[in-house]
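Supplementary material to the annual report.
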Amino acid sequence: MKVKSNIAVSDNGFVFNPGSGESYTVNPVGLEMLNLLRKGHTHQQIIASIQEQYVAETATIERDLHDFLEMMRQYRLMQHDDE
Amino acid sequence: MATRKTYERPIIKKLESNMPNKFGMRTIYEPVTHIEGNAVKDLIKSYGSPLFVISEKKIRKNYRNARQAFETRYPLVQFAWSYKTNYLDAVCNIFHQEGSWAEVVSGFEYDKAIRNGVEGSKIIFNGPDKSESDLRKAVTNNSLIHIDHLDELYLLQDIARNSGQRPKVAIRVNMDTGVHPMWDRFGFNYENGQAWDALNKILFSGLMDLVGLHTHIGTFMLSPSAYAVAASKLAHLAQSVLTKYNHEIKYIDMGGGFASKNTLKGSYLPGTDISPSIDDFAEAITSALMNSDYRPKNPPLLIIESGRALIDDAAWLLGTVLANKRLSDGRRSTILDVGVNILFTAFWYDHKITPAQSFTSYTEDTALYGPLCMNIDVVRESINMPLLNKDDQVVIHHVGAYNMTQWMQFITLRPKVVLIDEQDKVHVIRNNETMDTITGMEAVPAHLVHFDL
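Predicted assembly:
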């Protein structure tokens, strides 16, 4: 799955879904992950990138990335790759 | 290589512009890293997690404030420490050092007070369960026995008749004070004449010294005016006794039940905003007594048995985050090593819970669960919490009342309790339980010792 292409993300973590009219905020780590996802980075690349910038274990980042993706999916901000 | 930043788990939060949700607004702005000069992380490192921490300084301050609130309004006041609220010896002795008598509700608590060195005549014996041997002991020690029911009254008469001793007694009176629910299962009812009948039985018998009148109108009372009603009714009973028997009641015991600053579940506003102050209760009670129609030669002693309001905010429970999970509906849930087994009051209160380390401005709607394998082990059903990671530490506030007497030994062992003294020095006042604490009381019959699997 990938992030919906029409989602707008501001530099300070404000997320807008024009399809539903709903808005969200993300924290700095969430913003970093979201931007990398939008650029099409793989999960491994995202984990490596976060680990370069932040003090955290790989397992922690991996677990949190999956949780973050799950929340994105619940908020209907993701779409299937072929959509 | 550039310095790496502090990691915080990623969150995405929907912005709501409609009705406030049940998680409420963010209420926590600062971490609680220290308790009276002691770092939370050091306390946990030295004494383990979870850990109860009690402040001697705060107990003494609360007691002195309460005493001042009553003594500035009424000439004769005596506090009696409610053992059931927290009967750790060190805690009881702080109150006794401050001048509190002991208020006990069972033979166990009575013996604990005696063991602590409280003079028998300064122990108030309440409660519906006093055995014959408890009563004999209390009569011999000149303790103040508050009679709960007629069976106890008759038993005491027998003891007095057979021993030749004169028990010092009061009756517990229940009444309608305008609050719901009305507590009518303890003592004798005022409105239907039970209380007056009991007083007549005591005075007609001539076997006992009627020294007081007692009431305890409820628990976590948020209405001081209910105490004013209760005080007026007790004063009226006292005047009736004086008129009919020319007998002066020596004390009026208003019990306890004053609300603390905790927030009751379902309350819209926090307890810190809506709970009356001790001065409000003192004003209601003393004004009602002073303005009553009771006109003895000597004003009766006013006894206060407040427990919760004097100790709730003098204790904290420290805990550690075990794990974070996502519930089926997308809510965050955080599992703590503190559950309802040691935080019994989580059934009644929405406890204030603060992280013990710094956090950012981001928060998440969270359910806080304890470590037990029970669905009811919920510390907070819904709280707007800063982001917590595994092994982070939390401070649970206002836990001094009832938790250390009602805690359960369910699937795990109870933790240490420490006291921080007035010089900020830490003392263990109750050790953690061990396997031996539990198995030491067990016995396995010989035929059950061996098995093959």
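Chain B has two domains: 34-53+314-434, 57-312.
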